[in-house]
Amino acid sequence: MATIRHSLQKEVFDISEEKLIGILNVTKPGKKKKKISFLCAAINKEKPVCAFIHQIKENDKGSLKKKNTWPVFELQVVDGKDENKETAEFDLTFDRVYKWVASSVPEKNSFIQVLWKICCRYLPKQKPQFINISRELLKEDGDKIEGGDIIAPGLDQADTEDESDFCALSEREQIDLERLILKSDSAVSDAEAFAEQLSKDLTMLDGANIHSMMASESQVKALMEMIDAALLEADKIEKRLNNYDEILLYVKDSIEKMAEKNFFIEQTNANNRQLLETVNQLITQLEFPQEYEKFLTNPAFQINNLTPVIEAAKALETVIDAQIPPHLIHLQLHFQAVKDQKKRFERLRSEFSKHLARNLNNLFIYHGNDPGESLSFHAEKLALPRHSNIHNELMPYAPLMHWMRNLDPKAFQKLRQTYSNSMSKLYERDIKIFFDEAKQPIAGGKRLRGSGSSQDIAGMSGVAGKLTSLSHSRTGVGAALLGIEREQWGGELDASERQKFDQIFEQVLSELEPVCLAEQEFCISFFNLLSSSEPKGANTSTASTPGSNTSEESGSNTPSDSSRRHPLKQVSREVRLMMSELFTNLEQQLTSFVNTFYRADSYCCLYIYVRLSEHVLSAEDTGSFLSITFGSCLIQAKRNYDNFMGLQINSIKECRVTKKKCGIIPFVTNFELFAQTGESVFKKSERRGDLDKWYAMLVSCMIDNIPRVAIEHQRTPPEVVKMENYHVLYQLLSQLKLPGLENQRKEAKQRYQEALNAYVTQYFGRPLEKLNLFFDGVQAKVASGVKESEIGYQLAFSKQELRKVIKEYPGKEVKKGLEQLYKKVEKHLSEEGNLLQVVWRAMQEEFIQQYKNTEDLIHRCYPGAMITLDFSIEDILNYFSDIALSH
Amino acid sequence: MSVGKKTPIQPALHKVIMVGSGGVGKSALTLQFMYDEFVEDYEPTKADSYRKKVVLDGEEVQIDILDTAGQEDYAAIRDNYFRSGEGFLCVFSITDDESFQATQEFREQILRVKNDDHIPFLLVGNKADLADKRRVTFEDAKQRSDQWNVPYVETSAKTRANVDKAFFDLARKISSRKYRSEAQEESSPKKSSCCIIL
Ligand SMILES: Nc1nc2c(ncn2[C@@H]2O[C@H](COP(=O)(O)OP(=O)(O)O)[C@@H](O)[C@H]2O)c(=O)[nH]1
Ligand SMILES: [Mg+2]
């Protein structure tokens, strides 16, 4: 409350120069939204003292504002509502009745007390009515007024200051007054005299007052004079200041003018300096030392004397490439000196370019004609000659070549062409000899080239002979195909020759790599092929800045530097083009090499495919000329490989066996060696999958074609063909353990067993054919519902009939039959099939089983007839033993 | 072009028969020798034949193996394939005394059928890896083999211990025996041809 009181005083009442005496927090009764406002009792600080009651509200902005103001003298009734019951409500009646609810009863009471006090003090006569208010509150107040003890602090303050000539007397005055009255004894008795006394005193005092006032007049006068003097002084000073001001105005003007002038001067200076700089720069940029000129106009291209020429050339390049700032271009056109200088440069350039071109041209042609190291010197080991000597000799000219590329692109292109032409001849020769040479060692060390007579012999017996003689008959008889008897294969390479071929092929590939790489690196460095821009017209302002050239050149002097290798990853089209111009016959030679061997021995395509894949897959730079060449060769190799496999498949499908005894079909026999070769070639190759895929196809094709061959064969029963071949195939697959062929292996096994069972059951019955027929009939009857015990009454199966049949098979006959059967089986089965014992063993068991079944049937269908077969199990076993011992 | 040199010379062929009671590991030994694998539960076939090319003392030879169940109802059925054999691996399991006893009968039948006391023959005590289940002592087996005048070898088809040895030893015996008999055969016609010339 105190803070509110304080802020109210400050915000509201200080402004209106009032003093807050009482404050009450109130709301209007009955309103739902309680708007709190303050009722304040205040008195003004001026006289005559007036008391007011204000209603203060907090407006939206949070500041306190008076809402209503009523002078206390308009207050007619203060209604406490109930003097006995405590209630916070009360009414104030001014022009009308205002109803209020105090925030609490005690606050209400103390506010009413304040009102009461105010009324008592300032409106003693026309006090408003205080109704329904506890007597105590008002009475007490009365006492308090008399006692003067407890007064609202505000009111108390107001008392001391303001009451003097208006209101009731203060305590002290009262005491003074009493004292005064006491002084004059007569006061009480003689009022008139007392009054007179008082007026006398008053007059005296007035006089004294006037007197002192008069005394101060002279002093005032003196003060006035002083003020006048001061005014005069001030006037003077002002005048002088005005003077100064005027003067300053002049100065200001001139200073401003000077500043402006100064600025212009500075700008001119700066411009001049800049101009000077620019011109200086232009001059240094276009400065070309006289002493260089002689190196360019009359150059000496001796290899050990190149440095000054290169320096001069670079200097010329620098001035020609000089970056003339764009804003100076028009200037340059006007400067005669610049024009002259440019003309001079141009002259130097073309002159030097001519010299250089002629010289390099000669150099290239000279190196191109160089016989080089003949391959015959490499006789010990197949090798492609390196040309690092040429590279080394040319490398010092690289900066000049770069100069050319930049400053005379036409001549540069021509030179490059010359280089390509002469070097390509060299490489063409090298590569041709290299590949010819590579074909030789496979002929068991015999060389084809040499004296004329031995050439023919070697040609007929060596591989070279095979290479030529077989080239026409790839698909015909003589090719090493699965479906063809090995004896009929042509002169394909044997295992060691293939091994040798593989080695040589690997050597060929790994010899080509360094030579091509060296040439490629040389070309890149020497012709600056990796520079960002293709050579353009000279004098273009976009040419590389001087300085970057030097760094590039210093790098190109060491082409083997490892950091140089990196950019090779993205060999540009330009490089590839150049390489293909240099190695014109490489792809053709390689392809022809590959095809020659493929034709001579189709198995070579396996080696070629794997080796070439290896090299292509391991190539660091897949975009290089060599990689691309290998790549296209690989495509050819893959085609050959697939073609090879396709031919194998076809040969399986077309395979015919014409031998008397079918035995093992060639493709089954051949598959062992085929798979072994495949395994050895593809062992660790990443192309392994390509082989497995074909394995699966080949084996499935074989499984499918065995029955065809079996049916087509005239003499051997199909069951035997199937049994033997599936058996061998099954064994082969078990042994080879080729991945992914488990299903085919199982199928082969199953088909083998089916064929074995079919063969055994089909032939075992032969020795007792009629007996078997008879009992087949019996069984059929039984199956159709005839009782076993009544079979004997069937006409066809009577005891007599049975006896007749049995009689046809006396022991001797049976033995003969078995012997014949054994011979037949021996005739059917092949040695390679290796199944005679397996089959015969099964047949013996089957025979015994059949015997037992027959005995059993006789026993059941002809009980008590005392009929038995003419031979016992013992007899059979003896026959078997005899057969065994008879061979 | 020369085709003649292509014809491969067929390597010598040695026919080996596996004999012994059922379950002693004949098939397991065969498969281990053939394919380097041990099959825990190989379905017992009545008989199957195998062929393998090996290099025996520097010479390439083919070994034919006939693996049979050895449980025929009638011994006489064996006569024929015993007859075809050139050497025998007579197998028992060292964990099974009965199988050891059975070798006696097999031995006798082989001798009878082959009619040859020196027929290449090895007594093989298999499952040597199961040492804790041993029922047949090495000494007993050795004694028997000595009595028969044949080698005794203990093998394990599971660990491959002595598997190659068993087959190679037998093949070697077959080979040397053939060589000897060949030499004998060759000596007589030479004399006769001499006679003709004379
Ligand atoms: N621990 C062990 N088990 C074997 C050995 N040889 C065969 N077996 C097991 O003995 C059982 C019979 O083998 P099997 O070759 O079928 O005997 P077979 O009837 O003589 O052909 C199979 O479960 C084989 O795994 C061996 O050397 N060691
Ligand atoms: Mg078995």
TrEMBL record, chain A:
<dbReference type="GO" id="GO:0005546">
    <property type="term" value="F:phosphatidylinositol-4,5-bisphosphate binding"/>
</dbReference>
<dbReference type="GO" id="GO:0006887">
    <property type="term" value="P:exocytosis"/>
</dbReference>
<dbReference type="GO" id="GO:0006893">
    <property type="term" value="P:Golgi to plasma membrane transport"/>
</dbReference>
<dbReference type="InterPro" id="IPR019160">
    <property type="entry name" value="Sec3_CC"/>
</dbReference>
<dbReference type="InterPro" id="IPR048628">
    <property type="entry name" value="Sec3_C"/>
</dbReference>
<feature type="region of interest" description="Disordered">
    <location>
        <begin position="537"/>
        <end position="567"/>
    </location>
</feature>
<dbReference type="Pfam" id="PF20654">
    <property type="entry name" value="Sec3_C-term"/>
</dbReference>
<keyword id="KW-0813">Transport</keyword>
<feature type="compositionally biased region" description="Polar residues">
    <location>
        <begin position="537"/>
        <end position="561"/>
    </location>
</feature>
<feature type="coiled-coil region">
    <location>
        <begin position="220"/>
        <end position="285"/>
    </location>
</feature>
<dbReference type="GO" id="GO:0005886">
    <property type="term" value="C:plasma membrane"/>
</dbReference>
<keyword id="KW-0175">Coiled coil</keyword>
<keyword id="KW-0268">Exocytosis</keyword>
<dbReference type="Pfam" id="PF09763">
    <property type="entry name" value="Sec3_CC"/>
</dbReference>
<dbReference type="InterPro" id="IPR028258">
    <property type="entry name" value="Sec3-PIP2_bind"/>
</dbReference>
<comment type="similarity">
    <text>Belongs to the SEC3 family.</text>
</comment>
<dbReference type="Pfam" id="PF15277">
    <property type="entry name" value="Sec3-PIP2_bind"/>
</dbReference>
<dbReference type="GO" id="GO:0000145">
    <property type="term" value="C:exocyst"/>
</dbReference>
<feature type="domain" description="Exocyst complex component Sec3 PIP2-binding N-terminal">
    <location>
        <begin position="32"/>
        <end position="122"/>
    </location>
</feature>
<protein>
    <submittedName>
        <fullName>Exocyst complex component 1</fullName>
    </submittedName>
</protein>
UniProtKB/TrEMBL annotation, chain B:
<keyword id="KW-0449">Lipoprotein</keyword>
<dbReference type="GO" id="GO:0005525">
    <property type="term" value="F:GTP binding"/>
</dbReference>
<keyword id="KW-0488">Methylation</keyword>
<dbReference type="InterPro" id="IPR001806">
    <property type="entry name" value="Small_GTPase"/>
</dbReference>
<dbReference type="GO" id="GO:0003925">
    <property type="term" value="F:G protein activity"/>
</dbReference>
<dbReference type="GO" id="GO:0005886">
    <property type="term" value="C:plasma membrane"/>
</dbReference>
<dbReference type="Pfam" id="PF00071">
    <property type="entry name" value="Ras"/>
</dbReference>
<dbReference type="GO" id="GO:0007165">
    <property type="term" value="P:signal transduction"/>
</dbReference>
<feature type="compositionally biased region" description="Basic and acidic residues">
    <location>
        <begin position="179"/>
        <end position="189"/>
    </location>
</feature>
<dbReference type="InterPro" id="IPR027417">
    <property type="entry name" value="P-loop_NTPase"/>
</dbReference>
<dbReference type="InterPro" id="IPR020849">
    <property type="entry name" value="Small_GTPase_Ras-type"/>
</dbReference>
<keyword id="KW-0636">Prenylation</keyword>
<dbReference type="InterPro" id="IPR005225">
    <property type="entry name" value="Small_GTP-bd"/>
</dbReference>
<keyword id="KW-1003">Cell membrane</keyword>
<keyword id="KW-0342">GTP-binding</keyword>
<comment type="similarity">
    <text>Belongs to the small GTPase superfamily. Ras family.</text>
</comment>
<protein>
    <recommendedName>
        <fullName>small monomeric GTPase</fullName>
        <ecNumber>3.6.5.2</ecNumber>
    </recommendedName>
</protein>
<keyword id="KW-0472">Membrane</keyword>
<keyword id="KW-0378">Hydrolase</keyword>
<keyword id="KW-0547">Nucleotide-binding</keyword>
<feature type="region of interest" description="Disordered">
    <location>
        <begin position="179"/>
        <end position="198"/>
    </location>
</feature>
